[in-house]
Write a structure and sequence with these properties.
With 288 residues, the protein is an alpha/beta fold. The model has no long low-confidence stretch (mean pLDDT 94).
Length: 288
Amino acid sequence: MTHCCLTIDLEDYKHATMRDMGIRPVINPDQAERGLDAVFELLDRSNGDKNITLFTTGQIARDQAALVRHTADLGNEIACHSNLHENILELNSESFHQNLCNAIGSLEDATGEKVLGFRAPNFSINESCLWAFDILKTHGILYDSSLVSPDSRVGKPFLYDVITTKTGSVYEFPLYSCKLFGLMDVRVIGGTYLRLLPADVIINLMKKMQDAGYLPMIYLHVADIDNHFTAVKWCEMKGLTGIKRVSWILRQNQWSFGTASALDKLEKILKVFPNKGPMVSLVKGIVE
């Protein structure tokens, strides 16, 4: 049977969005709790593994430490998703090092377990910042899932790449990017694409991903399945011009579109691609 790795990018949507707006952020802990409850209920009634990897920000680990600890105690893997949901290509080596110190320290304080995996917010590691892998390795990271590629992997012996750094290897599980209807580049699969595309189209894209030699993967945000999507309100955008406020309202409307159907689509996908389990289990099979 074909499997996928269901993963969650666990950040506080409202906190991260307000930071992007350049205004003082507030936390919205209810969204993470609602989203995780819904995902784990779905996994309980699905055929695949009941545990997943959650790429989690340091901010979540500090502000919702009990939730993170409970999630880890259930057998899920807590991996790193930066400290405050920063794009890595906007950092330099020194600031990225400090970012990981803060994030990994907070995650390990919350769970009592070593952090072994990393995913950059917005998949923001590319050719311009490959130095990031040296820093990841110095912080004990064994594997990464930040790179996106349109290239076929057919003929490669493994579902991962080995990235050599100054202090050892990082195992890279890339995502696949392909053209949809010959027009639009789609990252397979999660986020906006999972919310907007029909389930049958998503399943076909995942089959295409597998045929291209990739590990089928889903990257989900709790905001993607939140029927009570909590946008940053107009009155909370203090200091922004009216034009910027309108722009952010429109963007948030886009991000909330399709949340009502996303969980049902995920259930259909998992019937074809049952969850394989936490990503760290794949890596431990490599290094042991």
